[in-house]
Amino acid sequence: MQTPLKIAVVGSGLVGSLLAIYLKRAGHTVHVYDRSPDIRTVEFSGRSINLAMSHRGWRALDDVGLGEEIRKIAIPMEKRAIHAIGEPLNFLYYGKDGESIYSISRGLLNRKMVTLAEEEGVKFFFETKIWDVTLADATLHAGETERGEWKELQYDKVFGADGAFSRIRHRMQRQSMFNYSQQFLNTGYKELNIPPNADGTHKLDKNSLHIWPRNDFMLIALPNLDGSFTCTLFMPFEGENSFEALKDRETLEKFFADYFPSTIDVIPELVEDFFKNPTSTLVTMKCYPWTYSDKVALIGDACHAIVPFYGHGMNAGFEDITILSQLMEQYGDDWDTIFKEYQVSRKPNADAIAELSYRNFMEMSSKTIDDKFLLQKKIEKWFSDRHPDKWLPLYSRVTFSYRPYSEALEIGDRQKAIMDEVMQIDGIEDKWNSPEVEQKIIELLK
Prior knowledge:
It contains 15 helices and 20 strands. The mean pLDDT is about 95. The chain has helices at about 15-25, 55-60, 65-70, 105-120, 165-170, 250-260, 270-275, 300-305, 315-330, 335-365, 370-385, 395-400, 405-420, 430, 435-445; strands spanning about 5-10, 30-35, 50-55, 75, 80, 90-95, 100-105, 125, 130-135, 140, 150-155, 155-160, 180-185, 185-195, 210-215, 215-225, 230-235, 285-290, 290, 295-300. The strands form five sheets. A six-stranded mixed sheet has the order 8-2-1-12-20-19. Helix 10 runs parallel beside helix 13 (about 405-420).
């Protein structure tokens, strides 16, 4: 236990709620502020992408004994189901036997996390707009409007867990020597829905992450507990096959008939959902430093927002909490060292998962229907099974291990260079699992 402090967390999302539980368990008084209403009282807006919980996320939950409670609302997905046009369904398994990522509704999980935090004694202040923070003394400034009267809320520490467009970071950006960048993809996304069968069962295989890869655009579907799937259409904002081009019912229906024919019978509300749900943007945001003195720290998307193609936004945010908690145990009341070590440890890994997430769009949208890529994955799995000490595939290193993301990126690049050479071997298609190929990889690893 540390010396009890009065700590504010700005943002009641997944990372903010879990961080509040950790801080409360460490003996602190914890208040969470959010400008939105209590998520347990609102209908969802149709702009979510289901979460894919993996090892790093589960560790953060298990370390405070919440994993089992959350597993009740999660569905294991052991494989990708690839829907190519005019070809049979193809399954690509993620890891070894029993290794799965888990589909969880973002709204369902967030509601659960807020309730669990309240049960710990965390106090939430919803519909409270935080406009600014005085960095030097961790004072929050709250009010109805940005230009109106503000109330001062004094704390010992403030954590900004208020997302990619964080108000806490906005204040930190106005210091000198603060680096900040944001980059929007020219690809956006829109939520669609596959309802359950009449008996409540799933219309598609429920233990798969379904992908309809079409190069510049793709559709994905993740299962929900009620038998439905949350679908997300990713495509450019402008151009030939784009959100801009799908402007009326006739064009939309023809587009889906041409490119996603297998969905026609399973997305009955396609037109209604498409024109009702917003088209959302995708942004990568980087900044540094993440802390100010021993008073203020950023966490999760507030300091490292990433695109969702590796399914690691939440997992990376939860891992921030794991590392922060370990440092709190190690350094006790030395918050200056805790904050310094936290940002030095996490920044390279946040940058690495941002890069990996960006790259994974190409893998999901085009490579999963490329025969050479599928053969390469088969060779990697075969070699990894024979030599687990020599080769852990990149996806497994990111998703089914706790090794640093920065290490995964570095080793993944080295593995790619090796596989590029292996794929040049004459007749690789016929001798992919031969002693010759095995020896070639071993030599290249040296």
